[in-house]
Each structure stands twice: as structure tokens, then as C-alpha cells.
Please model this.
Amino acid sequence: MEHENRTAADGGTGDYNGGGNGTNPRRIRIFDTTLRDGEQTPGISMSPEQKLEIARRLDRLGVDAIEAGFPVISKGEHKAVRMIASDGLSCEVAGLARANRGDIDSAAEAGLRYVHTFIATSDLHLQYKLKMSRQDALRRAVDAVEYAKSRGMQVEFSAEDATRTDRKFLGEVFSAVASAGADRIDIPDTVGYATPEYVAAITADAISASGGLPISVHCHNDFGLAVANALAGIGAGASCAHVTINGIGERAGNASLEELAMALKCLSHGADDGRGNGVPGKAAYETGIVSEQLYDVSRYISSVVGIQVQPNKAIVGENAFGHESGIHTHGILNNPLTYEPISPELVGRRRWLHVGKHAGIHGMNAMLQEYGIEPDEEQSKQILERVKALGDRGEYVTDVELLSFASEVLGDRGIKQLVHLTGFSVSTGIGTMPYAFVKLDIDGKEFYGTDYGVGPVDAALNAIERITDRTSELRIKDYGLASISGGSSALCEVTISVEDAGGNSVSAKSVGEDIVTTSVKAVIEGINRIMLKSMMREKTKQD
Ligand code: MN
Model:
């Protein structure tokens, strides 16, 4: 498989303009290892079919290369790599192999023309893991590279634990594998132990030791520095970074693709605005990533691997484009750039506002307007007082509370309920799969949904989704359950958020004694609000 269309990523050899000041952006190659290092996240494993679907999405996202897996480890893995390698993707497809002929053969038999082969080079790994001398490791590395080249493969060589390897020896290894025919050198910061300064220094070493081969950096996030370290390596002349979607990977994970791609695209990297201010003027780097797809791909990976990203995660976290504080929402409403470094649309998202005790009148009114509610000044004050009082009690103020305060203050102006729960039952137990039946009345029409789930709540919510998927492509995005008081008769509080196809979301909560019924009620509340919101949006479009 040839991939001329993406090989410009390396910008040739010897082109190491670090900054972007006055020069054209330097093209950085994105090597995605979600399917290999990402899959090594504790508790994650994917079927060959899931891996293939992820590979296709990564390809559409615009990555330059995919590490599809580690073919020798299992039959399923071998099959997955084979399926991906033969799928006609436009990106390059690599597979991992230890520095031995058996692993390289396995990669070749899986149909790969590109192998990522590695051996540890730090004394710590040599002594305690490989029980091998430095010279033996060096010979193995050279033999593996020569063998893979003899099989006609493109070879990327990694010196595992490079950042804890004796610096002089690391240079010898890189020089030897370059002479043996390696096409690319990768510097893994295997346990995330390097600082940006050190990654930059050994990247420069690797460029000179290898005689100018393209250098990749493979950074781990044990100290939260993975992306910073990858940027430092790139600044020092590396042309490629190994990354994963959502930063998944062993332990604290890898450098995250979405963070790195957006930092490369948006930040100044030593360039200035022409007047000495170190703020982004002209982009220093570019990648092939279609940034508008980042959020979707992130969500897709979360759903396949079952790991949600933290809310405050950069770029793809729930809160990355959410605003509550009155000062911030006021600024945002006047000019979004005041409190958003980039526009959410650039990464396929939408901004959202939230009310709580930090809320201000402008932000709150902007939210109410989305539902077609326009209180006057005095009414606004009264609604906001209620919001703040609830926030001061430590309560989470969802859209549902905001709307009920608005209808209290505005009198009988009720919020239209489009969806009514008219029937509902669940069955659960031991030796049977939890099953739910839900009947909804949506704007006068009756709908039924039935589904199984891992538990009764899951079954009930799945059954609701069966209906809403047909009617308006609504999804239940988040679900949280808390017990309010102790004992088996405790009240539970369910908080949910519902999202529509356009990425709009609405939060709602419900309190009750029965977990399943309370969950269903919370979801119905949320669905009602989001339907109202989209009706209002349609109406404003028509006006
Ligand atoms: Mn790794």
C-alpha cells in the first residue's frame, strides 16, 4: 500500500524550523496509537470489528498513520490488524513488533508494510526485564531493523524507555539502527518521566545521531506533561508525535491527539504577532487533522472503550466550552473570544451556558431565550434570586429548575410538556436479563419502546432511547445517581443530561424513592426541555 498523499508530513529531512515566525507552517505527522497503546489501558479490549471501525474513523479524521495493534499477541489481534491493513485506508497502517524475527514475521503475515519495532535500552529495563547487556540490545535492534527491511517493510524504530537511557548509548543505538536502514526513529518517554527541556535535548541528539532521519516522539502522561513534552520534541525538530484519542493508554495514558492537534494548530510556539507579543499570530504548524470531527471521534472512542473523559479535559471534556460565572457569560455573549480561546465549532462542539450561584442576569436571560422566554427586568431579578438561593444550598441547578422558577415568576405561563410517560414496567432478577417496557405520549401520538439492559435502569433508559431515536435522535448523555439519606428507604437523586443530534444538551434531575422510576422521570423531564429548545430554534429560523 502506498500513501504518497500523506507522506509530505515529514517535510523531508533537515527541515527543522522550530517556530513559525515568518515561515510557512511546518507539517507535523500524526501517528495515532489508540488501537495499540490506547488498547493497553487497563480494562480495555476491543474486538477486531470494533478496531476496524475505529481505524476507519481515524482515517477520516485525517491521521497520517495508525498503529493498528501488536499482531503477535493473539489471534484476534492478528485478525484485527489484517482487516485494517487490507481496508484500503488512505493513512499508513503500522503494527508493533518486539525486536525479533518472529514478531516481525507476524506483522508481515498480517499484511503490514510498516512495522514499529522496539527494544528497551535503559539499564533498568536491560538489567531487570531483558537481562541483557547494552551491546546485546544494540545487536538485537540492528538485526530487527535489517530483517524488517529485508522483508520490504517501512521500519520505525523505538528505543523503549529512551528518556531513562544513558544519553551517549541512546545516540549509539540511533546511529546504528539508522545505518541498518531504519526509516524513522521514535523516542518513547515510556513512563512519562522526562521534562520538555530533556525531550527537546534528546530529540536534537536523535536527529544528529541518525543523520537526519524523521523523528517521532511518544510521550506518556504520568506527570501530566505528555502534550507539553510532545510539543517540545516537535519544537526541537521532531516531525511526528504518537498520540491517542482522549489520551487513553497505559497508566495515566498517552499524549492526547485532540489536545496536541489543536495546540499545534492554534498556539504561537515561539512565534509572535509581529510586535513582540507572544500570542498566536500565524500558525507555526499544521496537521492533516479535520478538527471539526474531534469531538465526535472522542465520544465514539469513549463509548467503545467505556471510559468517559473527565469534565474539565481540554477540547473534548464536557465543561471545555461551558460557562456559568456571570462575568464570563456576559463577556461571552458580547464576544465569545473574551472567555473562549477557540470557537467550539472548530472542534465540532457547541458552547453552553449554565446557571448557578455564580450566574448573572445576561447569561440567565440568554438561556431562557433559548426556550422562548423573555422576562422583564424585575422578573429576571426574581428568577435569578431563586437560582442563586438554590445554588447557595449547594444544589445543582438544571435547566428544569431554571424553567420552573421562570414559570413561577411569570405566573401561569406554563412550560409546554410534549412528552408524557403513560406506561412503564421493568422486570429484573437473577437468571434473567433486565427488561423494560415504556409507553410515551409525544405531542398526542403514542409510542412504545422495549429493550434489555445491564440493569433495570439501563433497560428502562434504553427503551426510552428506542423511542426518541426514532422521533428526534435524542441520546442520554450522562447519568448520575446519588443517595440523599441513608437506609434502604433512602431518597435517591438522579441527574441526567440529554443531547440532540445537533449537540445541544439539556440537564434535568429528579428525586424519588424508586431508582428506576426516578431515573425515567428525570429523562422524560430532560427530553421535554430539549424538545422545547429545538422547537424554539426552528421557530427563530422561520421568523
Ligand atoms: Mn507507550
